[in-house]
Amino acid sequence: MIDYHALRALQAVIEYQSFELASKAIGISQSAVTQRIQNFESYLGKKLLIRKAPYKATGTGKTYLNLLRKVTSLERELEERENIRPILKLAINRDSLDLYFLDVLSDPKVANTVTLQVIADDQENTLSYLKSGQVDMCISSQKKALPNHSSTHLGDMLYTLICSNEFYAKYFSEGVNKKTLSLAPLVVFDKYDKVQHIYLKEHYKLDTFAKINLMPSVPSFKRAILGGFGYGLLPLIDIESELKRKKLIQLNPSKDFSIPLYLHQWEYQQDHIKIFSEKLIKAAKKL
Fold first, then answer.
1. Which stretch of 81-90, 117-126, 163-172 has the lowest confidence by average pLDDT?
2. Which InterPro entries has this protein been placed in (predicted)?
């Protein structure tokens, strides 16, 4: 017999990365969360949870969490028939969230179809949320689909290395090269953002920087570069207007940086998932 209460406890521990928070989320005691998981593990004779931070499901745990997701999806179908708006969980990279995905958020049909729960993370990490059963779909830079899932190419996010006119005059009067780039302040999203470093290493053999500004939001990142805090990579779709008005200068226009983006989701798609996916794919045509 499958203990779905235990599986929901397992899912909550992985989602919240805490037995205490998991207990609060599902409305039982912390000891009850532990007991439910342990009892089902004893019944199966196999471990479901790797009990060290970060908490992850074992191979067996992942199999049962996928089963839970299927059962939950069927439950949601029944809820839809009763006019209960289903919850859709999405893991998405921040540039997508703050750029073309805004079209999805502005669509009344989507708003009247689903309740959204969004997790924002780097495009290299989002697929892990789908693997662990924390979300229903994700946007990832990884192409390969998970078992029983599909992978749809949304397009490529194209980045270009830019800075403000004043910044260019101050730091690049002798040209854009390894030396001038190393001495000029750089802007990165956060300590996990390696896109700028990969680009500069590949094109300029550069791996040391005099100063790095951390700007952990898409609007602040762009504003910091416009304001002269530093140079960095920005999506072309976000700066078309600034480039036309010559408020920004492309430092290396012949060598832009491209990141492919894929929509990953379970092959079995309910009606609300189909509606959401169609809107998302349409919005991504801006890429």
1. 81-90
2. LTTR, LysR_HTH_N, LysR_subst-bd, WH-like_DNA-bd_sf, WH_DNA-bd_sf
Does domain 1-61 fall into CATH 3.40.630.30? no
Domains of the chain: which residue ranges?
A: 1-61, 157-259
CA distance 82 to 51: 39
**What six digits make up the tokens of 13?**
């521990």
**Residue 82 banded pLDDT, cuts 50, 70, 90:** low
Kindly report, residue by residue over 227-250, the tens digit of the pLDDT.
Answer: 999 999 999 999 999 999 999 999
Q: Is domain 157-259 in CATH 2.60.40.770, yes or no? A: no
From CA 38, how far away is CA 33, in angstroms rounded?
9
- Point out which residues pair with 232 in neighbouring strands: 162
Provide the pLDDT for residue 242.
96
Q: Please report the pLDDT score of residue 277 as a whole number.
A: 95
Tell whether the model's pLDDT for residue 34 goes beyond 70. yes
SS3 string, 209-261, reads CCCEEECCCHHHHHHHHHCCCCEEEEEHHHCHHHHHCCCEEECCCCCCEEEEE
Q: Specify the residue for token string 């570069």.
A: 225
